[in-house]
Design goal:
alpha/beta; Rossmann fold; 2 domains; 13 strands; seven-stranded parallel β-sheet
Length: 381
């Protein structure tokens, strides 16, 4: 028995080829390592800046050594990445068969049909495999993508999701057997608090509302931009910061009026931390989602939140008092909620306290790691 752990020490291979969820990978790997486990993260070079610094676990950059160096938007990038993905899986298989970890925990499937076969073969030679469905119902793509994601989730012996909403989606809409699904929440991204201070990427002179993160149509930034004049009418001088690389035409956001700053570029972790430290409220007006890394970054800083009533956001509000919840796609309701939080310091303090309690309690990585241990034990023991 390892000190601090509920089970014997395990060798855990975390697999996130594209590094889609490096902050999450880091939080889980660090917490598992702190509990006495040997953890290896198999991923690729993080191309958007400095990744979280590994603490107690090993990082192997197995994937996309060449294709990640091609310009974003290059017509060669996708085909090159597909070829390198297959080669990366072959190398990963050799390493896993050599090292024989107790469990392989897959964070994302990149080429789903290929990945399904790959992990089924690992399971067939006695290597337990767990899959985390970060997006049980993909937020981008059409029906064929949803069918492929559902088939992928069904192919694993254990599937982790982050909410009861996600569990229902997996069982009722993806056809995953209920006894294979385990609900384990996303952890608060507290490592961001340890980063050095840098100037904020956007600094308003008055109260600041922020929507950080990669911009896609489903995230509803256009609804927030449309709502902002009504917020400014009640809170003169307030600033809205929409900050993150746009994976859409920025013109779809509408014409930014007074007090709106749109920063179309990737934010470093330190810049994200600076933005969250300075924000009076973080606004997530998503049209659909299960869970959100930005939300769990905001919890780490004890920020007040305004959330659309989609995915797991209703659960977070009902069970933990997190945020104010409004109907998705409703600029008037969104403006009223944001202005209300900015105007009412006592209400804002209540929301901040709820975020702080959630980050320290149910969404602490210590508890998240313990619950993963239980899933690993089901398959590895």
């Amino acid at each position: 028995m390892t000190a601090g752990s509920d089970i014997n020490s395990l060798h855990i291979a975390l697999v996130d080829p594209s590094g889609y969820s490096r902050p999450y990978d880091h939080g889980l790997a660090e917490a598992l390592a702190a509990r006495g486990h040997r953890v290896t993260l198999w991923t690729s070079e993080f191309v958007h800046g400095e990744p979280p610094e590994a603490a107690g676990y090993e990082v192997v950059e197995q994937f996309y050594g060449r294709s990640n160096r091609l310009p974003v938007g290059s017509r060669l990038r996708g085909p090159a990445k597909a070829l390198e993905h297959v080669a990366g899986l072959a190398g990963l298989r050799r390493a896993l068969l050599r090292d024989r970890p107790d469990v392989v925990h897959v964070q994302w499937a990149v080429l789903r049909p290929v990945d399904r076969r790959f992990y089924r073969r690992l399971a067939a030679v006695g290597m337990p495999v767990v899959f985390t469905a970060h997006d049980p119902l993909p937020n981008v793509g059409g029906r064929s993508r949803r069918r492929s994601a559902a088939a992928t989730a069904r192919s694993f012996a254990r599937v982790v999701c982050h909410s009861e909403w996600g569990r229902r989606a997996l069982v009722e809409r993806c056809g995953v057997a209920p006894d294979r699904v385990r609900v384990i929440p996303h952890g608060a991204l507290t490592y961001l608090r340890r980063l050095p201070d840098v100037p904020p990427p956007v600094a308003g002179s008055g109260p600041l509302a922020a929507l950080p993160g990669i911009l896609r149509p489903y995230k509803g930034a256009d609804v927030l931009v449309q709502a902002w004049p009504a917020v400014r009418a009640r809170v003169p001088g307030a600033t809205l910061a929409v900050a993150g690389r746009a994976m859409m035409d920025p013109a779809q956001l509408g014409a930014p009026g007074p007090g709106v700053e749109i920063l179309d570029r990737f934010l470093s972790d330190a810049e994200l931390a600076a933005l969250l430290r300075g924000a009076e409220v973080v606004v997530l007006p998503y049209r659909r989602i299960d869970s959100s890394g930005v939300l769990f970054a905001a919890l780490a800083f004890g920020r007040a939140l305004v959330l659309s009533d989609v995915g797991s956001f209703r659960e977070l509000h009902a069970e933990h008092g997190i945020g104010v919840v409004v109907p998705p796609g409703d600029p008037a309701a969104l403006a009223d909620a944001v202005a209300g939080v900015l105007e009412d310091a006592s209400r804002r303090a209540e929301l901040e306290a709820a975020s702080e309690r959630a980050a320290a309690g149910p969404f602490s990585w210590e508890l998240v790691a313990r619950r993963h241990e239980q899933v690993y034990r089901e398959l590895a023991w």
